[in-house]
Amino acid sequence: MYDDIFGQIIDQLTDENGIFVEEECLFFDYKADFPFSRSDDYFGGILRLICALHNTHGGVIVFGVHDTLRTGGHNKVIINIESFNAVLADRLSSRVECFYKKQEDGQGATIDLLLVPKRLAGMKPVVANKDFGTYKAGIYWYRPNHEVREINSRNLPFIFSERTYSTQHVDEYTGIEDASLPPSPSTLPSFVGRIELLGDLWEWLFVDRTVKKFLHGSGGSGKSTLAYEFASLIVENAKNITSKKGDKLDQVIWLSAKKKSLDTGSNKIVSNSNDFDDAKSLYEAILICSNLIEEDKYQHADIDVLLELLEKVFSVANILLIIDDIDTLITAGVDTGLDGLEQAIYLSRSFCKVLYTQRNLPSHSRGNAIEVPGFTLGEEYYDFLHKSCEYFKVPRPDDDYTQSIHELASGRPLIIEVIVGLRRRFPSYRDAIRAFEELPAGQEALVYMYDREYNFLEFQNSKNLLAALYLWERPVSFTELQVTLMLDENEISSIIGEVNEIFLSHHHSNEDETLYALNTVASHYVSKKCQQLPMYSRIKQRIQNTKGGQLPRLPEIEKLVHRVKYLLSNGEEDIASSVVFSESYDAKVLEHPDFLALQGKVAMSQQKPDLQLVRSCLEKASNINKISIGLFWEWLNFEELNEDANEYCQTICDRVIEGKGYRLSEKADFCAKKAQLLCKRALSYKSYSYAKEREAYVFSIKENLKGVNLTAKSRRPDLLRHHKYVKTSVYYLYNCAVENNDFGNFIKTLTEFIKDRYQCDAFSDFFKDNQRLILRDRMEFHNETIGMLQGLKTNVAKHTVSFNQETSNKNFVTVLERIIEELKSNAA
Asked: pTM for the complete prediction?
């Protein structure tokens, strides 16, 4: 179908001698070669050209035209259009189906023509989705003439329009005559960057079916400025742009709940005249701005009447509503009226949409949210910084301070403006940055960005978390926060979720564990606020204790220990409790592990002990520092009185086994205790779950084997005792397996321990001591059992680790051979 078109193109571009006389233009571009590589700069340039033509009017790339001779036929690369289109589908953000034709010119030279189609109106501009050489991904390109250029915010209306080409100049205003836009909230006279975000907004407005969209981001990130630029572009170009259904906007209404803003010139928080204070005043403001309903119909009307009137307005006019800083009402606990507003739009079945700006991510509408982050360290940031310097008439910072300003501001436009503005009052950027960090000049900006969110925090522990992150002075793990704040996993998760969007930055450890810290700007704010918290001194002391290693004993705690010991020996538990749980001690005492351990000991001594109080005190003590082995045994004995505490008792054992500062023999004893607890747990599964019963016995063996190894390393004389513990656990597992006709899994488990290089002398003792039992139980399955035992024997000879390996291996193999021979004899 394109043969005639391609032929006409060649005739138009060349003269009678086959020379390409026409210059490159809006629709045509000449290239000498079709790209052979799919990853170099030349291919990146072709990809960029295809994006530009597709985003504008479409066009033709003519391959094979010599740069200087202007003759055709010079392309040597064979073109496979199906393969090339497949590459485009992989490398571009949306599919671009190009058409290809090999055509001869008047002189018989072969010309390769690639037709790039025009992008449909309303579709988002196509971009490369990965870097190619020097050409970066995610950049919008278009072709206004014979050159390819990067799209800026002022080009977006044209790019999203139908892009009809005309050679005639039309002097007609294409915007909205009666738009209710206030003065721009931006300090700088020109808008900088944010092209991708603006593209997302254009696509939402004219392509997406969703009614609402949220711009969210930290204070000072530029949400209002972005929304205003978007609104301005719509107002100026509304008549040129239609939705997928052919609808055009009639009005753009801007309303703001913002009561305060920061003047970056004076660094002062100033009051604003907000447009509404609650749902009712929001609805009234929309009706007033629409100018479609008589005033007497909505004056003094209730909410339901106002919503009916709004539905009528939306049914006769296509309106873009922009509601700025809606979380001013949310954080004040005031009804925003958003649900009613959206319902009125849905019922009207019209082309009306709402764009909100707010600081926090909308938890109820995450899928309809666009984050407005600070500038990354790149061209947009440099452009914004330089324009700020021009506006405030100060010199540009050098490279070091350019990076320092970015780090301090976390790329946020508002902070960048504040620091650059301060440069007018100070002799250098070093002094301006110091003023921002230390003087009231910078504190106003911090109060503006964070005060509202900080005061609105639902949980007191959220503020304690911010204080802890400030005091740690480095990124910390989830577990470290649990220890510092003495909260459980769910509580830490909840408060991280509450402060995450505004205050935190995330890092990763070498083990790819998420670490948490305050972002740079928030750290300056929190440093001033956290010292007012009731728990500040205690959190500070906990962190100092955790950082400091072994803590010194305090004389005042030593006196308390002797006093409490005397009271308990005389049966005066109540008095002992009042002594240690008094709040009259300073943080140094209250957060010391010896004092916390004393509290736990007293709590256990009460006639009706508070189980949670006991756990809280002793967990805190052992989290901070080592507590005595005697107290651990006392704690275990106390917990075992509770029938449901088996798993918790195992965690107490783990505190010694995995802890620092305990002897190997002490760790071995707690391995044995944990194994005993696992055997008890296995018995509780016996009546209903063989799999869980078996698993518990396997873990019991593993803990006892760990105890054997620890005892051997400690060179203590009680190695034989721990061997017996292993043998007992193996015996329990054997009985469990036999009762469930699962001898194969029993042998498999022992084999896995042997392969894992555990010291397994106790296994040999088990088979030696229980030879008669095994022969009796497995007589009916002699052939199967012989095969299993021969496999075990092979692994014993190959893998067994022993403290006297040669003798042990020989003995174990001998025991197994004896059982195998007797099984064979009985079978015969």
From this structure: 0.69
